[in-house]
Amino acid sequence: MKLLAFAASSSKKSINKQLATYAASLLEGAEIEVLDLNDYELPLYSVDKEQELGHPQLAQAFLAKIAASDAIIISFAEHNGSYSAAYKNLFDWCSRINPKVFQDKPLVLLATSPGPRGAATVLDTAVNSAPYFAGDVKANLAVPSFYEKFDVELGILIDQQLNLQLVDVINSLK
């Protein structure tokens, strides 16, 4: 299985990228590709920019990565209760090329934050909107209090109960 994983964040030290990478490693036998949204930085989307630029190559390349995958793991950063600007902008460009951004791929949607809700608000938004963009959400999980639950040096979830939940969530992709 070709598994695509990424954080919906542009932070170079993204805790969501750490979570997505760890989560992907839990799917035995998967061929994993972890993307960095910084590799897909585009001008701020607007109709005027679209008329000027057409469909940017980076947005097309991102959609091609989705097309080449069998399943996708996304971990969402929460910025003021919503998507990060970097993710939303890339998503907007991609949706103008193909409104079925997720191309009927099975999805596991995650989120984390240093706070006690673990970015649950943005995760709820993502779970509810993904089907409108041809996303087949298999499971989702918010990981609260990231720095208390995740060993950054080892790159693993150290909360045993949460780890068992994450394993079940990831196994939904089988």
Q: Explain this structure to me?
A:
With 174 residues, the chain is α/β, with parallel strands linked by helices. It has a single domain, classed as Rossmann fold, CATH 3.40.50.360. 40% of the residues lie in helices and 22% in strands. The protein contains 7 helices and 7 strands, in the order E-H-E-H-H-E-H-E-H-E-H-E-E-H.
Strand count, sense and closure of the main sheet?
5 strands, parallel
- Provide the CATH superfamily: Flavodoxin domain
Q: How helix-rich are the residues, as a percent range?
A: 25-40%
Oligomer: single chain
CATH architecture: 3-Layer(aba) Sandwich
Mean pLDDT: 98
State the end-to-end distance: 9 Å
From the 3D structure, determine the CATH topology. Answer: Rossmann fold
* Approximate shape: globular
Q: Tally the helices: what do you get?
A: 7
Report the order of strands and helices.
EHEHHEHEHEHEEH
Q: Which regions contain 5 or more consecutive residues with pLDDT less than 50?
A: none
Q: Count the strands? A: 7
Structural class: alpha/beta
CATH class: Alpha Beta
Strand content: 15-25%
Q: What order do the strands of the largest sheet run in, or round the barrel if closed?
A: 2-1-3-4-5
Total domains: 1
What are the key terms here?
single chain; 174 residues; alpha/beta; Rossmann fold; 5-stranded parallel β-sheet; two-stranded antiparallel ribbon; globular
